[in-house]
Design goal:
heterodimer, A: 306 residues, mainly alpha, MetI-like fold, 2 domains, two-stranded antiparallel sheet, B: 287 residues, 76% helix, disordered N terminus
Chain lengths: 306, 287
């Protein structure tokens, strides 16, 4: 009888665990491993051709025009990452600090700052695209209304402002996320430590740099890593606001757009190339995994256990 | 150190004048205006004609003027997109919560060989950016003959939602006391009966967190429909929005009304449940 009961329980556990495992294995693990394999073959449309070793990797890294496209997109991703580090995470920390003081209206401000985060990126992208329209957009209309007509410009139409316009839209969309993660970190700082600091110094600056910042290090580790992964996976917002080609003149081209365009083709060059696309995906994947690991390990090291 | 710091503090002019709380309050108010202004302009513009939007973008509209919404209702596929989004998101959520709870219950309540390995397997799925595997996923959906079929979306969303759900639920299920379970087992209740009648009612709070964390990205997703779905009648809301925005490029009143309608469901639910939303969406980043 006990024997039977055990096998019954073994069967029960199997019934519970196999269906969810199958989903993850089939739709996450298998595709990720396949992506690596795909990169080593010559693809003719949807048909897999010969094994060609490292040729796809060589092409996207060293053969023109792919080489310049890869470099240009990568450079733009780096700009996006550092700009959002300041605009999104930096501002997020400041806002969290302000919210943490529980001033009148803090609850309302907290709800407001997170509101854009729940919106679809597609809605945010179209909204800002309409706002930044050269003639009828609310940004240029306001500038002209304020007598600053010279500042009104085709924000998304010129190379030197397009990427920055996208970055600002993205920061507006997501600043609430680091804000509330940092806020949660600050709220976990024990009251005794804060009281002790208050006895020691009146300076807000010393309090922030010497006490609050080190003590929210775990929050910083997470938002920095997530921003890094997000910045190098950026796709939806530039796709809607600037188009699949990263217009104008590739000034908003990022790795996500470039990968998608290479793999599935676009209107201007209908050629789809799964081989080159997979090679790009593998390179982006390895880059993100390596750097994210380094960031996480380095930042973890400075976290303080309370 | 403390003397240095206090002289430093005295030197700060703005701080002295406003007080630090005054300065922080100004920052918060300014930020809230920046956060809300685009949304308010969007909603206002939805009730205006296109010339009105161009002439006075900030003006308060006549809220009884519903011509833009009427046009969307009668001329576009908008309602279909909305229903599709409800269907795809709803089905995915049911699958995620059912399968996620099953796996978490097995890992969290029973000791068996390989349990920690299986948990690691789920956690690995947490960190992998699945967008980069879109080419093999496309081929997989083609081989399963579900390209241009909402099942492709439901399967991918379910798989993507499982790692976080298993992670949240396992942690929670492990904290539940053993006594109830043991008592029921002594009474001869079957394992399935113990799970369904005794344990499941207790895990509801964790389910809410897991549900919110997954429902927002799934409802908002654009990338997978872009690759998997071509047929206009099958499109979800974010994807349908691109079709719609392309068709009405010059009719700004309709464009803003479309954006407002797309944003409305999630904004309303967020305002009603802001606490749960914030907890759910940041739960992955807060331990």
């Amino acid at each position: 009888m006990p024997q039977l009961r055990m096998t019954g329980r073994g069967l029960w556990i199997t019934v519970l665990i196999v269906p969810p495992l199958a989903f993850v294995a089939l739709f996450i693990v298998y595709p990720i491993f396949s992506a690596f394999a795909y990169a080593f073959f010559d693809w003719q449309g949807l048909r897999r051709g010969d094994f060609i070793g490292m040729e796809n990797f060589h092409a996207v890294l060293f053969v023109e025009p792919y080489r310049s496209w890869t470099l240009n997109a990568f450079k733009n991703n780096v700009v996006v990452f550092f700009a959002l580090m300041v605009l999104q995470n930096g501002l997020g920390f400041l806002l969290a600090y302000a919210l943490w003081r529980e001033l009148p209206g803090a609850r309302f401000h907290r709800i407001a700052v997170f509101l854009p985060v729940v919106l679809s990126t597609i809605i945010v992208a179209y909204l800002f695209k309409l706002f930044l329209h050269p003639l009828f957009g609310v940004v240029n209309i306001s500038l002209r209304g304020l007598g600053l007509g010279e500042l009104a410009q085709p924000w998304l139409g010129q190379s030197n402002t397009a990427l920055w316009s996208l970055i600002v839209a993205q920061a507006w969309h997501m600043v609430g996320f680091p804000t509330l993660v940092f806020l949660a970190g600050m709220q976990r700082i024990p009251g005794e430590i804060l009281d002790a600091v208050r006895m020691e110094t009146e300076s807000e600056w010393v309090k922030i740099t010497k006490i609050v910042w080190p003590l929210v290090a775990p929050s910083a580790t997470i938002v920095f890593t997530l921003l890094f992964v997000g910045a190098f996976n950026w796709f939806e917002l530039p796709y809607i606001m600037a188009g699949l080609d990263g217009s104008p003149f590739g000034s908003t081209d990022v790795l996500g757009l470039y990968f998608y365009r290479t793999a599935f083709g676009n209107v201007s060059s209908g050629q789809q190339n799964f081989g080159l696309g997979s090679a790009l995906a593998v390179l982006i994947f390895i880059f993100i995994a390596l750097v994210a690991t380094v960031i996480t390990v380095r930042l973890r090291a400075r976290e303080i256990q309370l | 150190m403390s003397a240095d710091a206090s002289t430093y503090y005295e030197r700060r002019g703005i701080m002295g004048a406003l007080g630090r709380d005054g300065l922080l309050q100004i920052i918060l108010v300014a930020n809230t205006i920046i956060m809300l202004a685009p949304i308010v302009i969007m909603v206002f513009s939805a009730f205006k004609t296109t010339p009105q939007i161009f002439q006075s973008p900030f003006g308060i509209p006549d809220f009884t003027q519903l011509a833009n919404f009427a046009k969307i209702w009668s001329e576009t596929n908008f309602l279909r997109y909305l229903l599709n989004s409800f269907f795809v998101t709803g089905t995915s959520m049911v699958l995620i919560l059912t399968l996620g709870t099953m796996a978490a219950y097995a890992i969290g309540r029973y000791q068996f060989t390989g349990a920690s390995f299986i948990l690691m397997f789920f956690l690995a799925g947490l960190t992998l950016p699945l967008k980069l595997a879109i080419i093999p996923l496309f081929m997989l959906m083609r081989d399963l003959s579900i390209l241009n079929n909402q099942l492709s979306l439901i399967f991918v969303y379910t798989a993507m939602g499982l790692p976080t759900t298993v992670f949240i639920m396992t942690g929670f299920i492990r904290t539940l006391p053993n006594e109830l379970e043991d008592a029921a087992r002594m009474d001869g209740a079957s394992e399935a009966r113990i799970m369904w009648s005794i344990m499941l009612p207790l895990v509801r709070p964790a389910m809410v967190i897991a549900a919110i964390q997954n429902v927002v990205p799934i409802w908002n997703d654009f990338f997978f429909p872009l690759v998997f779905i071509q047929n206009d009648d099958l499109k979800t809301l974010p994807q349908g929005l691109t079709t719609f925005m392309g068709e009405y490029t010059t009719d700004w009143g309709v464009l803003f009304a479309g954006l407002t309608l797309s944003a409305a469901p999630i904004i309303v639910i967020y305002i009603l449940l802001s606490k749960q939303f914030i907890a759910g969406m940041t739960s992955g980043a807060i331990k």
